[in-house]
Design a protein that fits this description.
By secondary structure, this protein is an alpha+beta fold. Helices cover about 10% and strands about 25% of the residues. The chain is built from 2 helices and 6 strands, in the order ββββββαα. It binds zinc ion (2 copies).
Length: about 110
C-alpha cells in the first residue's frame, strides 16, 4: 500500500494542530502557521529519515534570490538544516523567529 507517493501531501501539524493543506507549487514541508516540521527527510522530500523528531525554526535569514530561509533544528537529534519559506507562511511567525522573540519553550515540553 503506497500512501504517500506524492510528497506535497497535507498533514496535521504536530505542534499547533492546524490542518495543513497541500502547497501545489512545491512540496509542503512545514506548517505555515507555526513553521514547525518533522524530521522525516534526509534530502528534501525523500521521507527517508527515521528520526521523526520535531523540527523547530531557530533562525530566519533573507536571501536576495531565494527569499526567506528558515533554519531548523531537530529537537530529537539536534541536526540543523535550512529550508525555504513557503509563499503562504505566517509572516508574523517569520518575524518573531527573525527577531528571536518566538517562544520555543511551549513546544520543548513535548
Ligand atoms: Zn503548526
Ligand atoms: Zn532528527
Amino acid at each position: 500500500m503506497k500512501q504517500f507517493t506524492k510528497n506535497d501531501a497535507g498533514f496535521v501539524c504536530v505542534n499547533c494542530g492546524k490542518a495543513v493543506s497541500t502547497l501545489n507549487y512545491s512540496s509542503r514541508d512545514h506548517c505555515p502557521n507555526c513553521l514547525c516540521s518533522l524530521h522525516v527527510d534526509v534530502l528534501p522530500g525523500d521521507r527517508q529519515n527515521s528520526c521523526g523528531g520535531m523540527l523547530v525554526p531557530i533562525d530566519v535569514t533573507q536571501n536576495a534570490k531565494k527569499g526567506y530561509i528558515i533554519t531548523y533544528k531537530c529537537l530529537k537529534c539536534g541536526q540543523t538544516h535550512n529550508n525555504k519559506a513557503a509563499a503562504d507562511d505566517n509572516f508574523a511567525t517569520i518575524l518573531k523567529v527573525m527577531n528571536k522573540t518566538y517562544n520555543f519553550e511551549s513546544y520543548k515540553k513535548k
